[in-house]
Amino acid sequence: MDKLLTAERPAALCPDLAPQAELAVLTRVLYRLGYRDHTFGHITYKQPDGTFLVTPFELEWDEVTPADIMRMDADGNTLEGQWTITPAIVLHTELHKARPDILVAAHNHPPYGTIYTAAGRIPPAYDQTSAMAASDDIVLFNDYVGNVSAVDAARANVAAVGDKNLALLANHGVLVLGSSIASAYFRCSTLEWRCRLAWHYWPVPVAYCWETNGVHVYLVAPYTRVKNYIGTPYCIDSCIAIYGGVGCNP
Ligand SMILES: [Zn+2]
């Protein structure tokens, strides 16, 4: 991914922007990709002087302009700006303290990512774009309690994220990290793509079950789908529903 983002091109894809403008562009682009749960999302962008630019609490992401971007210190105290900073900023301040490699942290409740936070499951990758939100870079934080302003909850969340860059927070939303505006955009985009594709691909129950007297194959979907779910809790549930308690043979 880094190669893709830093490749030399004959013409600039985008003019040089002030950091506030970079962050405003990111919020607007992500809004179009589904990161638009009213005013509940927030993004922080670490600056070379150790301060952080942050999106305002009062505006939806398609309304944000460079002049609306706030600045805060490492503890979330306001340094500049006409708006307020979300009380949930502790999630970001604790994260940035633990992960100095991260310049951008984005949190929102995009529809398809949030479906999988409700399901408590990381969706499989069914195409190459989905695979760019790499499976070994995603963490599911099932203990997320949703108290977004509590330091203890934020620290537990940060500890669960570890060195990953994509997090599904149970029954809540997503947290996406990047070493640049571009990498944060790339990960936000591919994570929601992965969740959306998996959700659309997976509307029909499947099962591949084994019984003592032989092997049952119950195909109501393409074999690839069955193959991907053999041995998963979903497959086992389906086997039980269809065959009344038989085991699943991975
Ligand atoms: Zn949230």
Helix and strand arrangement:
Layout: H1 2-6, H2 19-32, E1 42-46, E2 52-54, E3 70-72, E4 78-80, H3 90-98, E5 104-108, H4 111-119, H5 128-131, E6 138-141, H6 151-161, E7 166-169, E8 173-178, H7 181-201, E9 207-211, E10 214-218, H8 223-229, H9 233-243
Parallel strand pairs: 6-7
Antiparallel strand pairs: 1-2, 1-5, 2-3, 3-4, 5-8, 7-8, 9-10
Helix pairs in contact: 2-7, 3-6, 4-7
Bound molecules: zinc ion.
How many beta-strand runs?
10
Shape: globular
Per DSSP, the total helix count is 9
- Separation, N- and C-terminal Cα atoms: 33 Å
Q: What would your notes on this structure say?
A:
- With 250 residues, this protein is of the alpha+beta class.
- The chain has two domains: 2-201, 3-Layer(aba) Sandwich (L-fuculose-1-phosphate Aldolase), CATH 3.40.225.10; 207-243, no CATH class.
- It is 36% helix and 17% strand.
- The chain contains nine helices and ten strands.
- Strands 4-3-2-1-5-8-7-6 form an eight-stranded mixed β-sheet, sandwiched between helices. It has a two-stranded antiparallel sheet with strand order 9-10.
- A hairpin with a 3-residue loop joins strand 7 (166-169) and strand 8.
- Helix 3 (90-98) packs across helix 6 (151-161) and helix 4 (111-119) crosses helix 7 (181-201).
- The longest helix is centred in the last third of the chain and has 21 residues, at 181-201.
- The structure holds zinc ion.
- The site of zinc ion has 6 residues, from loops.
